[in-house]
Write a structure and sequence with these properties.
- Helices cover 35% and strands 20% of the residues.
- The protein is of the alpha/beta class.
- It folds into two domains: 1-18 and 64-108 and 157-244, Rossmann fold (3-Layer(aba) Sandwich), CATH 3.40.50.1220; 19-62 and 111-151, SIR2/SIRT2 'Small Domain', CATH 3.30.1600.
- Helix 5 packs parallel to helix 9 (220-243).
- The chain is globular, with a radius of gyration of 18 Å.
- The two termini are 21 Å apart.
- Bound molecules: nicotinamide-adenine-dinucleotide (NAD) and zinc ion.
- Residues 9-11, 13-15, 18, 20-22, 28, 88-91, 108, 178-180, 182-183, 199-202, 204, 219-220 line the site of nicotinamide-adenine-dinucleotide.
């Protein structure tokens, strides 16, 4: 298990031009997220839901990773299994910054992917930045069933939470960047870790920052060098002790 857990949310991608939930007032680029991100959206509002995710997927093509994504990708490359990178984001900016798909856990799904709705099939397909219905005429190539975005909607099970839980229990340094803590309870996570760092642009009503050893209220691109230094000295001291 990794010694350092880096958990990010929408805030880390804000400086790359992807709005957070809060910045868009709950309307993620003009759509009511309580409708298009809800567990029954594919049944009740299929057209709207597909259109929403098609647009979000298409806009990713032109978005570039920012300095924070790049520094974290570089740390992961250098320290390997000592660091686990986990994100709530569905964008691919860490991958664009150089992380392999096996180097990052997307808790809430991945926009480039669509998935077969048949529970006995559930095959996943990477369709790049294209529209869902342009893939194989809109049906699953294996079984012909309907497809859906490979996104965890509100009210659905998030299968990767189990993995998150295991990493939280074992990590020694927890780093939280750009999340309001409304979806994932980072307060509890901070209580498990020996040391913890919180970086958000501003305080959030869902986070009690007293649980964190260090709190940085500033943009992720401005905080990330200090965060990286702390991770490096933490891992270097542990690894040099091991060699003794
Ligand atoms: P959120 O929108 O609830 O909160 C964003 C947080 O980021 C806030 O606390 C804010 O202070 C902070 N922030 C804003 N700009 C920042 C910056 N430049 N640097 C550092 N921090 C900054 O986001 P959430 O907690 O991730 O929850 C939203 C949910 O919506 C997640 O489940 C996520 O999957 C989804 N979502 C994803 C994306 C994406 O993939 N890029 C975008 C919007 C929403
Ligand atoms: Zn199928």
């Amino acid at each position: 298990m990794a010694k350092v857990l880096i958990l990010s949310g929408a805030g880390i991608s804000a400086e790359s031009g992807i709005s957070t939930f809060r910045d868009s007032g709950g309307l993620w680029e003009e759509y009511d997220v309580s409708v298009v991100c809800n567990y029954d959206s594919m049944q009740k509002h299929e057209e709207l839901t597909i259109e929403f995710y098609d647009k979000r997927r298409a806009e990713l093509e032109s978005k570039e990773p920012n300095y924070a994504h790049k520094v974290i990708a570089d740390l992961k490359r250098r320290y390997g299994r000592d660091i686990v990178v986990i994100t709530q984001n569905v964008d691919n900016l860490f991958e664009k910054a150089g992380l392999k798909s096996s180097d990052i856990i997307h808790l809430h799904g991945f926009l480039r992917e669509i998935r077969c709705q048949d529970p006995y099939c559930e095959q996943i397909f990477d369709i790049g930045y294209t529209k869902q219905r342009e893939f194989n005429g809109g049906g699953c190539p294996s079984c012909g069933s309907k497809l859906r975005p490979n996104i965890v909607f509100f009210g659905e099970q998030a299968p990767k939470y189990e993995e998150l839980g295991r990493h939280v229990q074992d990590c020694e340094l927890l780093v939280v960047i750009g999340t309001s803590g409304n979806v994932i309870g980072v307060n509890t996570m901070a209580q498990f870790a020996t040391r913890s760092i919180l970086n958000n642009y501003e305080p959030s009503s869902a986070i009690n920052d007293a649980y964190f050893s260090k709190v940085l209220y500033k943009k992720a691109t401005e905080a990330v060098d200090e965060i990286a230094e702390e991770i490096e000295s933490f891992l270097d001291s542990i690894n040099s002790l091991k060699k003794l």
